[in-house]
Structures are given as structure tokens and as C-alpha cells.
């Protein structure tokens, strides 16, 4: 059984590496995490595991190409997920100004429209602050899973 499904959006691999580090840490802590590098809607409608979005931001506040088909289908089909817990980790770069970490906001809005329930505050990781996003992500994730009661 998968306890946590990680939906990845990444252009250059930073968010993917972060997701893999999260999986390793969660598995070591006794959970079972699945990293979805090219998620499709079926990946979330086929079970009820908590969802962790781990995406970077591209373009002008946009969602990376590998996560975009999932996002578009989610918005178009709005499969209802009442109360389903989700969390958001988003990589960005504050030098982009208004679009800083915009992909996280888009994913959050879409998940809210399915009636899913956000757990914890979004973690925004700024490329200007760190080249090692997993160092910020892992403590955040440990706190996040503790709030899930699974
Ligand atoms: C072409 C391009 C566009 C970007 N646009 C944004 C943006 O609009 N907002 C933002 O916060 N970061 C933006 N970024 C920064 C990336 O999100 C950031 O560098 C991130 O760490 C990349 O993660 P990845 O390796 O998983 O793709 C952009 C980066 C590039 C190269």
C-alpha cells in the first residue's frame, strides 16, 4: 500500500531530486511513498493516499511540462476528492518577482476545486537562498506527515 503519492513537476531536475530525497526519507521512516514523475489523473483517482505536490515553477509562474497534462485534466474533470489531504512544496526563484513560486498556487487552486484539504503551509524554496532544496524540504515533510495522522 502507498501511504503518500508525490506529484512531481520539474524542468531541470531539482524538484525531481527533491522528491526522490523525500521518498527516501519517508520510506526510511516507515512510510511508503511513490514518486510520480509523469502523473496522470488515474494515479490519484485510483486510491485515496495523501498527495504531496513537489514542483518547480517555469515560464512566468507556470507548471512544468511533465506536470501540465495532469493539471489540465484535473481542472477540466475536477474529480472530487472531499477531505483528501495534500501538501505543496514549490521551487522557484524570487528574482522572478510576481510569479515567484506560481506553480504551487496553481496546483493549490486546482486541488481546492476538487474539495481536497490542504495540510500545512506551502513550502516555497527560493533558488536564490539555496542550491540544496532537500535541506529545506525534509524537515518540512517530517512535520507535514506528522499532521496527516496516517
Ligand atoms: C525559463 C525559466 C523560467 C522560470 N520561471 C520562474 C517563475 O516564473 N517563477 C519562479 O518562482 N521561478 C521561476 N524559475 C526558477 C525555477 O523554478 C527554479 O530555478 C527551480 O529551482 C528549478 O527547478 P527544476 O530544476 O526542478 O526545474 C524559472 C526558471 C527558468 C530557467
TrEMBL record:
GO molecular function terms attached to this record: FMN binding
Pfam families the record matches: Flavodoxin_1 (PF00258)
Transmembrane segments: none
PROSITE patterns: FLAVODOXIN_LIKE (PS50902)
Residues annotated as domain Flavodoxin-like: 4-145
UniProt name for this protein: Flavodoxin-like domain-containing protein
Native source species: marine sediment metagenome
Amino acid at each position: 500500500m502507498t501511504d503518500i503519492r508525490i506529484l512531481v513537476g520539474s524542468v531541470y531536475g531539482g524538484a525531481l531530486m527533491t522528491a526522490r530525497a523525500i521518498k527516501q526519507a519517508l520510506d526510511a521512516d516507515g512510510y511508503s511513498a511513490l514518486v510520480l514523475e509523469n502523473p496522470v489523473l488515474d494515479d490519484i483517482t485510483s486510491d485515496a493516499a495523501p498527495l504531496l505536490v513537489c514542483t518547480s515553477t517555469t515560464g512566468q509562474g507556470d507548471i512544468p511540462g511533465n506536470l501540465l497534462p495532469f493539471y489540465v485534466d484535473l481542472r477540466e474533470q475536477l474529480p472530487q476528492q472531499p477531505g483528501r489531504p495534500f501538501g505543496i512544496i514549490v521551487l522557484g526563484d524570487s528574482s522572478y518577482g510576481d510569479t515567484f513560486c506560481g506553480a504551487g498556487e496553481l496546483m493549490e487552486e486546482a486541488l481546492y476545486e476538487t474539495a481536497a484539504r490542504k495540510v500545512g503551509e506551502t513550502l516555497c524554496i527560493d533558488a536564490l537562498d539555496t542550491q540544496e532544496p532537500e535541506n529545506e524540504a525534509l524537515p518540512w515533510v517530517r512535520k507535514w506527515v506528522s499532521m496527516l495522522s496516517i
